[in-house]
Amino acid sequence: MTSLQRREQLIAVGRSLFAAKGFEAVSVEEIAAHAKVSKPIVYEHFGGKEGLYAVIVDREMRALTTTLTEALDNPDIHPRRIVERTALALLTYIEENAEGFQVLVRDSPSTDPSGSFNSLLGDISLRVEDILSDTFKRQKLSVKGVPYYAQMLVGMTVFTGQYWADRPKVSKEQLAAYIVDLAWHGLSRLNSKPQLLFEGARAQREAQREAEREAQRRQRGSQRELPAISCDSADSVIDTVSSTGTDVDDASASNETDAMNGNPAGENITE
After folding, report:
1. What percentage of the chain's residues is helix, strand, coil (to nearest 5)?
2. What is the DSSP letter of 230?
3. PROSITE patterns attached here (predicted)?
4. Which of 64, 118, 179, 271 has a beta carbon 3.0–4.6 Å from 87's, enabling a disulfide?
5. Using CA atoms in the order 159, 163, 168, 173, what is the torsion angle rounded to 10 degrees?
6. Do the beta carbons of residue 121 and residue 154 sit within 8 Å?
7. Mind listing the pLDDT tens digit for each residue in 218-259?
8. Minimum mean pLDDT among 151-155, 157-161, 173-177, 188-192: which range?
9. CA pair distance 191, 248, nearest whole angstrom
10. Contact at 8 Å (CB) between 56 and 18?
11. What sign does the dihedral 118-191-182-72 (CA atoms) show?
């Protein structure tokens, strides 16, 4: 085996081990054992597992960058087509480079403070941000939220792809359709001033106002069911009762007088 072939063999072995176990869990001894070489061979080619890991990450980064750059290369095409291209490009990379993708999305080693994969996602998000800015301006929408929308789109695609890599129960095209459906219909129905409806300070204020309105409605309902009696109404009732009582007493006295004179109450006397 030539030196170049040995180097490629070590890269392939290292990629598989880093993808399966992560950087910290892999040792130089393990790499050498899987490649059926001695430890000095690994050190000779890469200086240690850190050097091997750096080479693997650099290769995967370049492959993914090339794939996504080609998808975003023509910002003048329809925005939905850009979303479709980007989703399909990432899923194609995951499908064809499963181990490489696992290496990228795993935690970076403590010796790599830059966070290479995060840096790559940041660069992609900036490209998407530029495209979204132009689209928002044409639709007369505020560009204030564009950086966040770009991060959402990239993050949604990457993390969904990571989930799919472990559970490939649908085809690449079907998953891309799911991503595009959510992203596109969300973007096509953006509010000019988006707000929370059920949570947050605004929702709490609206709930408080609604509670106050409900209390007022209940109070008005109680007042209609139990009308207050005014002083004038009370006096009128008393006068009516007094007047009625007097008439009754007068009628009773008249009946008693008729009875004493031998005339039954209510009987007419005809001469």
Report:
1. 75, 0, 25
2. P
3. HTH_TETR_1, HTH_TETR_2
4. 179
5. -20
6. yes
7. 888 887 765 555 555 555 555 555 555 545 455 554 555 454
8. 188-192
9. 78
10. yes
11. negative
